[in-house]
Amino acid sequence: MSHSSGTVNTADADRQAIERFLSGDVAAFEELYHRYQPYVYNVVHGIVQNPEDARDVTQEVFLHVYDALSRFRGGSAFSTWLYRVAVNTAITYVRKERRHARVPLDSLRELRADLDAEPEHQADRAEMQQEVQQTLAQLPEQHRAVLVLRYFQDLSLEEIAQAMNCSVAAVKVRLHRARHSFRRLLTGRFPQGDDQL
Q1: Tens-digit pLDDT profile for residues 176-192
Q2: What does pTM read for this prediction?
Q3: Which of 121, 174, 187, 197 could serve as a FRET partner for 102 with CA atoms 20 to 30 Å apart?
């Protein structure tokens, strides 16, 4: 919160509410709850990243504050202390949830994409490479050669022309025809294949 005159009034109102609460006026805590609940929820939600969990953790924060308010010494503003409690409670919650691995299915899918998908991608790549090899095998040798030199050996058009003992213009024509044939064959075998060349 900013250091405006409104903040001073809020700080005074907080201090008065705390004093009333500690004197036995339970309704005074409701006042604090309604004043800070939206802020605490936003802080917590930013950490736990799940609305339902954020609501639960927010309730936990206020239960903790309710129990600990008698130990609040006023060394800092109540709002500062409250946010610290909120952050610590949220972080503890996230660590505990991680340890118990109670993760929603969607998060699990995202985690698999981040962690476990590497072998899957390797399997996809291996499958794709096999399809590419089988498709190449169906092409005429000239087409096969020009594609291999260009895409597997990463040669320039000039280098391919030298390797194939022909002009750069001839390489361009062969490359165009080879790509067209390759795409047509691969699309039939592997529907995503037309993105590869």
Answers
A1: 998 999 888 877 765 55
A2: 0.48
A3: 121
CA dist., res. 102 & res. 93, Å (int): 12
- The H helix count followed by the E strand count for the chain is 9, 0
In angstroms, rounded to a whole number, what is the distance separating the alpha carbons of residues 88 and 96? Answer: 12
The CATH class for the domain spanning 5-100 reads mainly alpha
116-195 maps to which CATH number?
Answer: 1.10.10.10
For the chain, the structural domain boundaries read 5-100, 116-195
pLDDT tens digits, 50-92: 889 999 999 999 999 999 999 988 887 898 889 878 878 887 8
